[in-house]
Amino acid sequence: MAAQTLDTPYLIIGAGPAGSAAAITLARAGKQVTLVDMRDFPREKVCGDGLITDSLNALQRLGIELPAEGYYHSKGVLMYSPNGKYCEFDTEALCYPRIDLDLRLLEAAKAAGVDFRPHYRLRRVEQADGRFGAVEFVHTESKESLTVRAEQLLLATGARSEPLKLFGVCQRERPSAIAARAYFRVPAAVAREFDKIIVVYHQAILPAYGWIFPQADNTYNIGVWDIYRKGDDGKGGEIRSVNELWKVFIETFPPAVRLLANAEQLGPLKGAPMRLNLEGADFYKQNLLVIGEAAGTTYAFSGEGIGKALESGILAAECLLEAAPEATPEQVGARYAKRLVAQCAHRFRTYEVAQHWLSKPFLCNLVTRQVQRKGYLKRQMEGIFEERVDCEAVFSVPSLIRSFVS
Ligand SMILES: Cc1cc2nc3c(=O)[nH]c(=O)nc-3n(C[C@H](O)[C@H](O)[C@H](O)COP(=O)(O)OP(=O)(O)OC[C@H]3O[C@@H](n4cnc5c(N)ncnc54)[C@H](O)[C@@H]3O)c2cc1C
């Protein structure tokens, strides 16, 4: 088996949104970057494909323009509560398949000069003199090995724990949530009726929630996610099957039943783990920074993670670029961790509260009713989606009281 070795200043492992965002930022600043992924692109990534404000802002910061076609622009979000009623937010969002989004990001990285190595799976890492040295990958087809020696490493491998364990940055093996989705194509006349993003707190699957995200060409991404609740330790706690929840969702949520009556399912239901709330991993160790969902950058409120993965990749790259020449890797890592926590931790804690509220039927029904009044609470909730409003101030008793009067 042939073996290759290469030296590079920056090695990024994982070419999802976090890895590509870091690669683009470093390469555009003139740095030499090697980006390795176990898959070749375009590749599918199990996701809801929804892009909310933070994702759109981060893409803009990276100068990534979306194509003229191939995505869906939803001019509103419908939220269904357990009693079957719904409210509407005027927030805009896009649905853009990850197979296309991630390719677009990777192409921008390659155009900036990044050396991309597909098909290499992380296998082993050496540590010497208090830093990570050679990182060994194995080609998923030829089995040939690739050894990369880098001064600085960025780990962007998403929610799975194995890469985190290899680097000794895994604080918790179990993910925070599991989600699954499948695509469907429906007749054009039916699609015209379902023209907005739908988020569903359906009685039959609570505290899990479901979604129906319209895509281009009369297709829909329909999924469900379920959070591991505190105490669900993988031993004593009861974990429900997300595949069964999904089946219950599409068979008993009336709009889903109507939408899918004459639909064609495009491919199987696929699931994936999620790491939320900046929990489950260290943010840095020696000359390694952990970015994106590997560091738990996905929201507990909505399961949205593309935006924060992009932001963390940009942030990590900026910390490296801004570092003084005499700064140690640990100092750079500590600065990155501090800024990541400052940027996200408060927001994430309050999103957890929001998720908790909405998973309680009484509160979810009440919030939906108050949003329907099109006053204070509607504006505040829209502000949360668009990151203009502090979630803590909205999911509070004073805020609910205020929603009755304004
Ligand atoms: C069902 C589901 C629905 C979701 N819906 C949404 C949504 O609608 N909107 C939203 O914003 N977020 C959503 N998310 C969350 C979103 O998918 C993640 O937050 C986002 O993908 C994180 O990006 P990342 O770059 O950190 O990791 P990933 O996108 O997971 O990228 C990691 C990359 O690392 C590579 N890799 C992994 N292990 C190795 C290895 N050992 N060796 C080499 N390469 C490796 C992978 O091939 C992959 O390309 C959803 C997640 C799920 C599971």
Polypeptide structure, described:
- The chain is of the alpha/beta class and 406 residues long.
- It has 3 domains: 3-45 and 98-174 and 277-349, FAD/NAD(P)-binding domain (3-Layer(bba) Sandwich), CATH 3.50.50; 72-97 and 176-274, 2-Layer Sandwich (D-Amino Acid Oxidase, Chain A, domain 2); 354-405, no CATH class.
- It is 36% helix and 26% strand.
- It has 13 helices and 18 strands.
- It has helices spanning 17-28, 53-61, 98-111, 161-166, 188-193, 242-252, 254-260, 306-322, 329-358, 361-372, 376-385, 391-394, 397-405, and strands at residues 3-13, 33-36, 50-51, 72-74, 77-80, 86-89, 93-95, 115-117, 120-128, 131-139, 145-155, 177-185, 197-200, 209-214, 219-227, 264-274, 284-285, 288-290.
- Strands 1, 2, 8, 9, 10, 11, 17 and 18 form an 8-stranded mixed sheet that branches. Strands 6-5-13-14-15-12-16 form a 7-stranded mixed sheet, sandwiched between helices.
- A hairpin with a 2-residue loop joins strand 17 (284-285) and strand 18.
- Helix 1 (17-28) packs parallel to helix 3 (98-111), helix 2 (53-61) packs parallel to helix 8 and helix 8 (306-322) packs antiparallel against helix 9 (329-358).
- The protein is globular and about 60 Å long.
- The chain starts with a strand and ends with a helix.
- Bound molecules: flavin-adenine dinucleotide (FAD).
- Flavin-adenine dinucleotide is lined by residues 13-19, 36-39, 45-50, 55, 121-122, 156-158, 160, 163, 179-181, 223, 272, 274, 292-294, 298, 303-307, 309.
